[in-house]
Amino acid sequence: MLIFLLKLLAITALYVILIAIFHRVVSKWLKMKRRKAFSHEVINERHKKGNKLIGNLTVLAMVAGFIMDVSTDVDPDNRFLQPYLIIAFFVVGRLLYKFYMEKKWLRDKRESVYTLMEAGFYTLLFAVAYSTNFWMI
Q1: Alpha-carbon 22 to chain mean position
Q2: How far apart are CA 129 and CA 59, in angstroms?
Q3: Residue 95: enclosing H or E segment and its boundaries?
Q4: Torsion angle defined by CA atoms of residues 16, 18, 21 and 22, in that order, rounded to the nearest 10 degrees
Q5: Which whole-number Å values give the CA distances from 107 to 53, 97, 102, 103, 112, in the listed order?
Q6: What is the rounded CA–CA span in Å between residue 20 and residue 8?
Q7: Pick from 97, 96, 100, 88: which is nearest to 124 by CA?
Q8: Separation between Cα atoms, residue 124 and residue 30, nearest integer Å
Q9: In a 10 Å sphere around its CB, with 0-12 CB exposed, 13-18 middle and 19+ buried, how is residue 15 labelled?
Q10: How far apart are CA 32 and CA 57, in angstroms?
Q11: Cβ neighbours of residue 121 under 8 Å, at least 6 residues apart?
């Protein structure tokens, strides 16, 4: 158990460091004010409602995955019902929705480029974490 917690701590620390470096580099490259890490700025009321819908869908997918896992005889290695994959999918979905809203409503297009790059970087991090079994052992 201790080894698992140390691996989890190491992966989390690496993730936070990579996100901080990403935000610093991209904000300098795009000549923008650096965003706060893990912040959720909303563009307008429609964006707020969409974010709430995505959050509700995330919870619904987590509960549905749990119910399917408990009530059926699904293979435990079925990764499509794993909570980390559901969360990763909806985090990237929320960022893509934010990109759409920024592109549609903001005049400064650098914000939408920043969000799209952020979504791509998160997808890359999630794919690397998903494809390696180091942290699940």
Answers
A1: 14
A2: 22
A3: helix 83-105
A4: -110
A5: 25, 17, 8, 8, 10
A6: 18
A7: 88
A8: 20
A9: middle
A10: 32
A11: 19, 22
Task: Reduce the DSSP state of residue 38 to 3 states and report it.
Answer: coil
Per-residue tokens: 34: 């650096």
For residues 19-23, average pLDDT: 89
Would you say 128 and 101 are in contact if contact means Cβ atoms under 8 Å apart? no
Token code pair at residue 19? 């996100």
Residues 60-112 have pLDDT tens digits of 988 888 888 778 776 666 666 777 788 888 989 999 999 999 998 888 888 88
Instruction: Kindly report the pTM of this predicted structure.
Output: 0.81
